[in-house]
């Protein structure tokens, strides 16, 4: 699993934990529903760090908390 898939998985996981929908997250994060939809549906495979930060703000967590999972820690290097 690559970083993109992990980001999508983490967004869904955090939405479920907070009992909100991705549409509700878009409102809380101050980003468009189409942006969240394009990330979650694979249309945007490289969401920018500013977008990830806004998502974290909407979830009321830090960027460090977002990426602080075992799966992110075990992620293999992309460049070989």
Description of the structure:
There is one protein chain. With 80 residues, the chain is mainly alpha-helical. Helix 2 packs across helix 3 and helix 2 crosses helix 4. Helix content is 65%, strand content 0%. The chain is globular and about 35 Å long. The model has no long low-confidence stretch (mean pLDDT 93). The protein starts with a helix and ends in a 7-residue tail after the last helix. The protein has six helices and no strands.
What labels describe this entry?
single chain; mainly alpha
| Assembly classification | single chain
Helix fraction bin: 55-70%
Structural class: mainly alpha
Molecular shape: globular
Number of discrete helical segments: 6
DSSP strand count:
0
Radius of gyration: 12 Å
Q: In terms of per-residue confidence, which ranges show pLDDT below 50 for 5 or more consecutive residues? A: none
Summarize the biggest pleated sheet. Answer: none
Question: Mean pLDDT across all residues, rounded?
Answer: 93
Residue fraction in strands: under 5%
Could you give the distance between the termini?
16 Å
Helix-strand sequence? HHHHHH
Summarize the structure in short.
By secondary structure, this protein is mostly helical. Helices cover 65% and strands 0% of the residues. The protein starts with a helix and ends in a 7-residue tail after the last helix.
Please write out the topology.
Elements (H helix, E strand, L loop, with lengths): L2 H16 L3 H8 L3 H8 L8 H11 L3 H5 L2 H4 L7
Helix pairs in contact: 2-3, 2-4
């Amino acid at each position: 699993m690559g970083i993109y898939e992990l980001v999508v998985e983490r967004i869904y996981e955090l939405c479920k934990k907070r009992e909100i929908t991705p549409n509700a997250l878009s409102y809380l994060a101050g980003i468009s529903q189409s942006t969240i939809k394009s990330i979650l549906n694979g249309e945007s495979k490289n969401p920018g760090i500013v977008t990830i930060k806004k998502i974290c703000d909407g979830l009321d967590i830090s960027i460090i908390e977002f990426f602080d999972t075992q799966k992110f820690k075990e992620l293999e290097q992309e460049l070989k």
